[in-house]
Design brief:
By secondary structure, the chain is mainly α. It has 9 helices and no strands. It is elongated, with a radius of gyration of 21 Å.
């Protein structure tokens, strides 16, 4: 009957979850920096996370760049500022839209896959079997996935930046009557190395979040098919929320 009791209970539950995630992150980081490293597992997850995610990331970046060019041209036409289309498309893709949208697509694909795989191993007691064989699941299961995400997500975002800018170039030159050489020259002159580097730094942080959330929720999944399904959903939702929060904090630091 006391409303403050429910508020306090929710607050304590929230703080408990944060504490568990911090402890889990610390264990994963320790497993990543200490040998042995399972390079075979790392390579397999690099292919699964990076290579097989190229189509969805590429298509997302292509249509995002194309739509961004159209919207900027429409808005700029009201102020006779259509010439700024290549500048804004370039900086918007490299600093914000490329890292964020690519990471959100990867959260839906990679976090869900990791949570489902590890959750299935948890409910079928395969993780307990690894412990009986003196194999640390943090070293064998979690660290390779996080290392692979740290390597592949920045590379995917770099590809997304190129494809997204090309999408804006294609729309501008084919539909908006821009000169192709002038469009490329304005883009290259306006984008700085820090614009690209800041986006790649964001991508590295987002890659850590994507893999970490998949591992955490899969490892803490409940028994049964419903528990694994709930862990998969929670992994995607929590990864997306943390990506937005981290993007705001990093943008504040980089501005």
């Amino acid at each position: 009957m006391n409303p403050f009791a429910s508020i306090g209970r929710a607050t304590l539950g929230f703080l408990t979850i944060i504490g568990r995630i911090i402890i889990f992150s610390g264990k994963c980081l320790m497993a990543m920096i200490r040998p042995p490293w399972f390079f075979g597992q790392i390579g397999r997850h690099i292919i699964n996370i990076g290579y097989f995610s190229l189509p969805v990331v590429g298509l997302t970046a292509l249509f995002t760049g194309a739509a961004l060019a159209l919207n900027i041209y429409t808005g700029g036409a009201r102020f006779n500022a259509e010439s700024f289309v290549p500048n804004i498309v370039g900086i918007g893709i490299t600093r914000e839209l490329g890292p964020v949208l690519a990471s959100l697509m990867l959260a839906g694909r990679v976090s869900a896959a990791i949570a489902a795989e590890i959750g299935a191993m948890k409910v079928t007691e395969q993780i307990d079997a690894l412990r009986t064989l003196s194999t640390d699941p943090f070293r064998y299961l979690f660290a390779p996935r996080i290392i692979a995400a740290l390597i592949t997500v920045p590379l995917l975002v770099l590809v997304a930046d190129i494809i997204g800018i090309f999408g804006g170039y294609a729309v501008a030159t084919q539909s908006l009557d821009f000169n192709g050489a002038l469009y490329v020259r304005n883009t290259m002159n306006f984008i700085t190395g820090w614009d690209v580097a800041s986006g790649l730094i964001k991508a590295t942080v987002f890659g850590f979040i994507i893999a970490l959330m998949g591992c955490y929720h899969g490892y803490n999944s409940e028994q049964g098919a419903q528990g694994v399904g709930r862990a998969t959903t929670n992994a995607v939702v929590s990864a997306a929320i943390l990506i937005f929060a981290a993007n705001y904090l990093l943008t504040t630091l980089f501005v």
